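Here is one chain, start to finish.
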Amino acid sequence: MNTTTKLNAKIRNYGGQNDFVRKMKQVVFQYGGLTEKQAEAAEKALSEPTKVDTRFISDNTRQIADYVGENTFVLDVKGKFLKYGTLSDAQVSAANKQIKKENEDKNRMDVNIDVIGETIVVGRSTGEDLKKQKGLNFNPLLLDITEVVTLTAKAVKFKGKLTTKNCGVCKSCGRTLTDEFSRLTGYGKTCAKHLRVEYIKDKFEFERFNKDVLEELRRLVKWNFGFLVVKSKYGTEFHQCC
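Its structure:
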């Protein structure tokens, strides 16, 4: 960003009470820039302390002017704005990023919800997304919660892995298991093939099948997945979102 561009940005962001700079602000907005003499005079005026009128500043600049946190960088930028009445676009952008991060950190908290080991159905769309992201041959729909990572006012993030529990539905596609072998193994024949595990021919092969499935699941990593947190009169509800 060259000197002229920086100066124009400072004038556009000006919130002080210097009448000349206010006039130059109108010129910049109307014509896109200043003459050489106007620029020299504006540069000099901007270096002088002024009082800030927060009624006419942008929302991003107002966040800086109203900042009451302890971030030293933001406080330094705020001090410059309150003294000289303006900031560069880079200063506004950097300070707002720090304020946003600070607000996010306040809303985020580590939690230990008593759901570790619970099995949830993440939904077909999420399963399909995980299938694409991880290069799988099947849709992982039933997942065991292994860790609650974070909880904010809007969402909760879990870590999970494919379940080894038999839940009455296929652990891959979520369909109801109807025959003896599928109910015994927790997988239909087609989904077992997608998992790259040889299906059983009789019930005596269950232990071998279960061992092969466990080996395959150990090969797979744990995934992050999240839920919207909806608070209602009935309590806190979790709605799958990703």
